[in-house]
Recover the amino acids of this structure.
């Protein structure tokens, strides 16, 4: 049995309580949203410089995400490439927002994340392979054609999310963007996979085996 790039030579991920895992993955985002709602209209004078609530909340979100990611890695012994890339971009662009007292850098982060993921999937497609399969093959059992179709759709979807994030943060208020980032993007990804039911059914390995019989 061949190994995927995600697991080749790596120690298998340890099992962890699903509730704890979800809390570590989504807890920092929920905390960011709650803190923003509480502090959005406040201003803080730190070292003679005025920082609005969004910047202060961003400053707290960065170490919280780092800590939760490290705990998740310690418990499971594994981090996905998506988690690593997200953490790096949060630290870099969130840090720039705090350092320069400019919220635009943090708002740009989702755009770059989705462009990177969409670009990586597109690069794999040009090579005739599905990098998505390497990441999700343990979660979905699809034919090669199914993986290629899903990868192509997800690539376009990621590019669409990148464009949508640019439109929202450049044309809407910070509060509107926070709601969009917290709920809109999450809901969009959930709906995307919910609408792929026919693909999962038509290109499942079980359906192919039944047809072959």
């Amino acid at each position: 049995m061949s190994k995927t790039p995600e697991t080749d030579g790596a120690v298998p991920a340890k099992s962890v309580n699903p509730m704890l895992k979800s809390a570590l993955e989504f807890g920092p985002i929920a905390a960011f949203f709650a803190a923003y709602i509480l502090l959005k209209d406040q201003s803080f004078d730190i070292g003679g410089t005025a920082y609005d609530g969004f910047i202060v909340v961003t400053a707290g979100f960065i170490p919280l995400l780092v800590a939760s990611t490290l705990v998740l890695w310690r418990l499971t012994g594994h981090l996905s490439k998506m988690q690593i890339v997200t953490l790096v971009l949060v630290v870099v662009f969130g840090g720039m927002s705090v350092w320069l007292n400019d919220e635009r850098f943090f708002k740009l982060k989702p755009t770059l994340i989705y462009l990177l993921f969409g670009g990586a999937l597109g690069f794999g497609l040009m090579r005739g392979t599905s990098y998505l399969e390497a990441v999700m093959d343990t979660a979905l059992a699809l034919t090669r054609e199914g993986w290629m179709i899903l990868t192509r759709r997800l690539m376009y979807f990621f590019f669409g999310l990148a464009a949508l994030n640019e439109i929202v943060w450049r044309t809407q208020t910070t509060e509107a963007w926070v709601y969009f980032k917290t709920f809109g993007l999450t809901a969009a990804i959930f709906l995307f996979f919910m609408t792929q039911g026919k693909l999962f059914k038509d290109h499942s390995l079980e359906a192919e085996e039944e047809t072959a019989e």
About this structure: The first helix runs from residue 18 to 39. The chain has nine helices and two strands. The beta strands are 43-46, 49-52. Residues 111 and 165 are 6 Å apart (CA to CA).
